[in-house]
Amino acid sequence: MIQKENGARITMAKIKRAKNGRIIFTKEMKRDYTILVPDMLPIHFEIMKYVFLNEGYKIELLRTAKPEIKQLGLRYVHNDTCYPALLVIGQFLDALESGKYDVNRTALLIMQTGGGCRASNYIHLLRKALEKAGYNQVPVISFNLSGVEYNSGFSLTLPIIRKCTAGVIYGDLLMLLSNQVKAYEIHKGDANRLIEQWVARITKQFQQSRGFALKAMKENFDRIISSFAKIPMKKVPKVKVGVVGEIYVKYASFANNNLEEFLAEQDCEVMVPGLLGFLMFKVDARIQDVKLYGGSKIKFAVATFLLNYFKKVEKAFMECVDKYPVFTQLSSYEATKPLVDGLIGVGNRMGEGWFLPAEMIELVNHGYENIVCTQPFGCLPTHVCGKGMIHRIKEMYPRANIVPIDYDPGATKVNQENRIKLMLSVAREAMQ
Amino acid sequence: MRIGLDVGSTTIKSIVLDDWGKIVYSAYERHFSQITAKTAEALAKVRAAFDKSTPFSLVISGSAGMGMAESCSVDFVQEVYATKVAAEKNAPDTDVIIELGGEDAKIIFLEGAMEARMNGSCAGGTGAFIDQMATLLGITPDEMNDYAKESTKRYTIASRCGVFAKSDIQPLINQGADKRDISASIFHAVVNQTIGGLAQGRAIKGNVLYLGGPLTFMSELRKSFDETLYLEGVCPENSLYFVALGAALCAREQVDLDTVMDKLSQYEAVNEFNTLPALFADQEEYEQFCSRHKQADVAYGTLEGYEGKAYIGIDAGSTTVKAVVMGEDKEILDSTYLSNSGNPVPIVKEYLTEIYRRCPDIQIAGSCVTGYGEDIIKNAFSIDWGLVETMAHLKAAQEFMPDVEFIIDIGGQDMKCFKIHNSAIDNIYLNEACSSGCGSFLQTFAGALGYSAEEFSRMGLFSKNAVDLGSRCTVFMNSSVKQAQKDGVSTEDISAGLSISVVKNAIYKVIRPASMDELGRRIVVQGGTFLNDAVLRAFERELGFPVVRPVIAGLMGAYGCALHARERVELAEGGEKSGIVTRLELENFVHQVKNVHCGRCSNNCLLSVNTFSGGRKYIAGNKCERPVTKQSTDSDHNIYKYKQELLLEYSSIKGRRKEVIGLPLGLNLYEMVPFWHRFFGELGFGVEVSPFSNRELYLSGQYSIPSDTVCFPAKMLHGHIEYLRKKQVDAIFYPCMSFNFDEGLGDNNYNCPVVAYYPEVIAANVKFDGLTILINDYVGPHKRKFFPQKMTELLNRYFTDIDPKQVKRASELAFQEREIFLGKVRSKAAQIIALARKEGRRIIVLAGRPYHVDPEINHGIDMLINGFGVSVISEDSVSHNVSKFPVRVLNQWMYHARLYAAAKYVCTQEDMDLVQLVSFGCGLDAITTDEVRSIIEKGGKIYTQIKIDEITNLGAVKVRLRSLLAALDRQKGPSGSKRIAGGN
């Protein structure tokens, strides 16, 4: 059992509750509380952290990865719930229990996508778990773009959205470049050093309220790309592997048993598609709903505005990368849509939806024919858009070499790695 | 010389090739998890067989060889790839390889683009599975093969995973089915599992190669594959060695064997497991523990020469038979605890004979039986009473602790936990078919490692660093153990880890308490598994306080039965003599089994009719009580039945247009059929609806299922599509629907991701020829205003002559039809409720989803409940009685909003209770079950959940329902007494 802190202490901010009983994160709390955020993508989240720090939020990323976290998750969350929920909630509880934070002045922030997938319910599972563990006083903030829950002390204003978008795109760029360099760099560690440098520089710019206007971004992009292009590399033929899947296990190394590291050890070049595409897909889902079934013109307009902004940023990014033929990049979001014609409808919008098979095809088209498709065991949307599509994609693209891997607290690394190795054997043979 | 080593999950195979590729050496042996030592040994043997100066190259393959090869800098080849290499050399014409190993199953397609499938992490072992089943039948795998040769019929055994199959087989054994038929059925289940789980839409045809241990050693398994695939596969020479052979063929670089062996001896696997503190610090602590538990004991007497009244209690459990002979003063005169090795009848017969022999003048005053075999034993030996297991255990536990608050019973195959409130059972937790990480699991593992169960558990007592193996199902734990072994964890630590896992499984998976306080402080633990001191200790450790474990922990069911018999006899003064078979009758005891098909409904169950001397009869294998009572369950008491009848009204129709639209009766179409039937009918299309599901229908579509972990109702859809294709309809209409109708009960009206998008899976995995097309576009009837226009656009893409006006009219009528359908269901529910109240019947809201109406999906649970004299209604027939209310989850799925509403409604009705049907693998129900439970419990009711899958065994379901009804009776007075209808 988690030990509760004994002796009641008076919190500085008054606890206000919404109609359904949840604690509202108030303005006073913004001043006093530390907000804990589970990390998913180390580069992206580190940069975005500064967006919020600059707005006066005390934010801290959780990067813990001990095995106890799984145990806590299993103890406080229904065991048939998806693995990401289990890990994230376990990670939160572990943090609260660690003694590092004043539990009366800590809030938790969790992503809520608001789609038909179970992920929209993580926040409620988290609250239930907090209650079970005796942390009733800890407010939980929903990070969402669909206005599911309102908090007076936390709002995603347009400037914040703009800055976060910049954070995402810098993250995507650094991830893209470093992955293509790491496998071939002559001095091991060059790419990682550059990542560190750039994260520091960008966050510094953010602190000075610079670096997120389109023009500034373009300048940064150029410098970043040219700095990576200068890293001395020895290009030898390597197996190229793409990683796709459910968003959390695809990105979070804690969830996918250090998949990228494992692939690097197996002497592969890895391509992990960026986060911006997924965000565009999520926004676009609302547009598609209206197109398919009819509906509100206002929602349509808001979503279209946001999507167009994303597209503009994406275009700037792609133009900059295009100048350096040494780097490969995947196609624009809009260009991936026709790829799934006759495979899956763009109305498929829960979880990763049609965008997951689109990414697989994209990877195949760009020479990353070997793909690990990651999903939590029993993940509902990926039964359809992940595992359900592989057969057909292989028919359409015979070179595609895809292995679906399930992640779960009970699934063993040895099983997962064995299956990935099989995929790699096929890949190596195809290379010869 | 090239050496290939295949270090598999259970065996090591070695092959040596000479420079011309000829096999000059081969060896095969079990490694009993001592992987590094045995590998070094295997290499030493190779070297000894050849001249000292022979140069060797070496490649290691196999699931257990992976990490080891790398750390010894030996080349490693993935085993499927190795198989492929070997096949290309030895059987170049091969199109498909089917390889079953100790714990892996693989299909490799060589023709065209090479593709290999391995069983997922959930899909049970194969070789290990067969071994386990053989153990269950009390025979060797070889004997099983011999038995299968003489089979005459096949039973349906769930092929999804080993644990499920086991719970199908156990009742067959208990019901007295023939071992020959069971053996053949097990092989068939393996075949279905392999094809269903691994083929994933790609046809297995051409030259098929059978490899691996099970397929090499078992002719009947090969035959079963041949029959199912309509071909004749070949099991080649060296079929056991293909992986090793492939590895040898890949060997290039010369190695020095001495160096490799040296490195192997130094190899220390990195242990990635979490370790847990030792169970006991020292011998002294253990002895204290033992003497504390010795205190919970009973009085004993002697059977020989006993002169008072005697009572017999029998517990015919899933894997063991327990019996107690009790004297007048509750003293135990004699007891037995025997493995039932397939059939409990002869065991009980033998024991009764022994009692009569040892105490010829015994005066048996009463007898009572419980457990899986309750019915057959009761009939066979004319036992006076049958008692539901939970009640038997409660009775026994109260004898040791009258104010017991919580009882946990872990037996061979199941786990029963119940909360006691005011001396009545307040809540029941039973393990699901998938988490039977119970006693038989420990036993199987002990066996696999070459120990007896007792030895194995004792080894764990003083382990220093017990490994944390997780708390999931057997199969998962299986591979955790595999990894632990690979990492060099000692057997002692594994044993302790497994004991801890059993405990964690019980607490966190089955009981799921919010806090340990919920269990109370007065806990009795029992069941054979708790006789294992390591398990008991781990349990007390996890709870943080001591519990009571009676010395007779393994006999509690039988003990409770004897107590029950004694109580009944005492209460009904007079009745001095039990009706149990007399000594003479026992001497002439005859037991015959005949198998017949029931034929009373579409299920057409295969019945085992047991007849005993004296004309007593017992029928098993039935899903409902019809063959027993000869009465049909009718829709007056059963809304599921009524809905089935109602759906039959939407049958095939001819239209004025020539095109026929096919509607698959599955998932959301269970509710949408009236809508679409009317819609297309009005537009002049012919309509063809697929029938209710059955086993054959399922098997016909099994080949195209891409994800074997998706829920059964979704998998069933593939069969419905096959049906409609065979009917050659012009178009199968199975649209994607992100949203369902908004009934105003939730915050949103989504469908679950699987229900919403399964049509995409069908489109991507079923090949449609020219005759039939699939229309799986996205439609949104929730936007009624836009619907006609959107549908016109859609239909225009596929058909000519679509008149927008007609579409508009058809849409309106379709919306009306849906209302009519739902209205009929609701008013029927009201009638059922009224009738039940008039007749003083209990009412159960069997709450699931619309597609749970399908008889193959609900397995007749509705009829089973009816058989207890209880009326059945459904969640969608009462949910409209409640308006939207706050729940503690995001209430965004339409079908699930109904569940919450139904639960809320049940709480307002005194004579109603809720039983939730949950399909295995339903991710959303991980969220809904907890919420429904909390609504129900807040309303002061007992929550009952039934997990269903392919599984056809209703034994566990029966126990659960009977326990529920018994608990309700004890709470509210016996059933049948007049009840006051709750206000509404």
How would you portray this structure in words?
- The complex is a heterodimer of chains A (432) and B (984).
- Chain A is α/β, with parallel strands linked by helices and 432 residues long.
- Chain A is 52% helix and 11% strand.
- Among the domains of chain A are: 16-32 and 64-152, no CATH class; 237-273 and 330-431, 3-Layer(aba) Sandwich (Rossmann fold), CATH 3.40.50.
- In chain A, strands 4-3-5-6 form a four-stranded parallel β-sheet, with helices on both faces. In chain A, strands 8-7-9-10 form a four-stranded parallel β-sheet, with helices on both faces. Chain A has a two-stranded antiparallel ribbon with strand order 1-2.
- In chain A, a hairpin with a 5-residue loop joins strand 1 (16-17) and strand 2 (23-24).
- With 984 residues, chain B is an alpha/beta fold.
- Chain B has seven domains: 1-91 and 236-268, Nucleotidyltransferase, domain 5 (2-Layer Sandwich); 97-234, Nucleotidyltransferase, domain 5 (2-Layer Sandwich), CATH 3.30.420.40; 309-400 and 558-587, Nucleotidyltransferase, domain 5; 407-547, Nucleotidyltransferase, domain 5 (2-Layer Sandwich); 591-622, no CATH class; 641-821, no CATH class; 822-972, Rossmann fold (3-Layer(aba) Sandwich), CATH 3.40.50.
- In chain B, 43% of the residues lie in helices and 17% in strands.
- Chain B has 35 helices and 32 strands.
- In chain B, helix 3 (79-90) crosses helix 10, helix 24 (639-648) runs antiparallel to helix 30 and helix 27 crosses helix 28.
- Chain B is globular.
- Mean pLDDT of chain B is 85; it is low at 973-984.
